[in-house]
Amino acid sequence: MNVLPKHLRAFVHLAETLSFSRTAEHFHYTQPSLSKLIKDLETTLGRSLFERSTRHVALTEDGVELVGQARHIIRSYDEGLSGLENRIVNSSQRIAISALPSLASVMLPAVVSHLEGRYPSLTTTIYDGSSEATLQHLLRNQVDLALTAADPSRRELVYQELLKDRFVLVSAGKLAASIPTTVTLSDLSDMPLISMSAASTAQKYMVAAFMSKDTQFRPKMAFDQISTIGSFVQAGLGIAVLPYLAVFLLRHLEQLTITEIVGGPTRSIGIVTRRDTQLSLIAEEACEQLKRYAQEIVDKEPKWLRKAS
């Protein structure tokens, strides 16, 4: 039975007004078009719904019997359609981001706060983990975008640099007192360095920097967690070599000293997206907010952070 909502809406409105002219005007039909619509409905149902003449329109017994059912069908249809629309809207108000832990902690709170202010029903998922895990989430279509260090240089991915993050020394107590105001890479060779673990991009940058000087990077200790590094530094057990943004996570610790490494490595921080996937409007807005926030922190910390190339 080919009965569409437009047939039932016209039937109900005409039953309520008993006026072809008013019903036609309400739905922006011509009167001949409305007459054909009602006639088609009567033909499909096999029943006459209206008695009509040039001066008179009235419901038939069948029309009286069926108009209540028509109202119920329209109400159910509209409620179902509204529910479907709400579900689509709510499902579209989602964003998933993977990021290195230091970047997730420093850059994402402000961005997510902005998005939640704009989209009160927003569902946000953040994965914080290693550089490899961060990219794997993106490659498996589990996230909209990734925030990581270094261009992954993969054809299926697009990298947008946000800023450059300088490596620094972090020390405390007697060890801090023994360090000059600035140091060079060569000065680090004899220091009790504490680094991120070998799997981290942070240590890879240090290894590459030392290799450029024909030396090996051999830290005294290496840890996965920045908080652990902070505890060992505060206890005077070593000097951390970290990207500056990672030091943000140690600011709650007391009496830490940050020292410049002249000619030291600088890591690139950027957004990674899939080349074959168009970002949602919310994901695009997240990217714009990340760019804006990156500019803000570069302006606040020009000694340690640099603008994107």
What is this structure's SSE topology?
Layout: H1 5-17, H2 20-27, H3 31-45, E1 50-52, E2 57-59, H4 61-92, E3 94-99, H5 101-118, E4 123-128, H6 131-139, E5 145-149, E6 157-172, H7 173-177, E7 182-184, H8 185-188, E8 193-196, H9 201-211, E9 221-223, H10 226-234, E10 239-243, H11 244-247, E11 256-262, E12 266-274, H12 281-300, E13 305-307
Parallel strand pairs: 3-4, 3-5, 7-11, 8-9, 8-10
Antiparallel strand pairs: 1-2, 5-12, 6-10, 6-11, 6-12, 6-13
Helix pairs in contact: 1-2, 1-3, 1-4, 2-3, 5-12
Question: Mind explaining what this structure looks like?
Answer:
By secondary structure, the protein is of the alpha/beta class. It has 3 domains: 5-90, Orthogonal Bundle (Arc Repressor Mutant, subunit A), CATH 1.10.10; 93-162 and 268-303, Periplasmic binding protein-like II (D-Maltodextrin-Binding Protein, domain 2, 3-Layer(aba) Sandwich), CATH 3.40.190; 164-266, 3-Layer(aba) Sandwich (D-Maltodextrin-Binding Protein, domain 2), CATH 3.40.190. It is built from 12 helices and 13 strands. It has helices at residues 5-17, 20-27, 31-45, 61-92, 101-118, 131-139, 173-177, 185-188, 201-211, 226-234, 244-247, 281-300; strands at 50-52, 57-59, 94-99, 123-128, 145-149, 157-172, 182-184, 193-196, 221-223, 239-243, 256-262, 266-274, 305-307. Strands 3, 4, 5, 6, 7, 8, 9, 10, 11, 12 and 13 form an 11-stranded mixed beta sheet that branches. It is rod-shaped. The two termini are 64 Å apart.
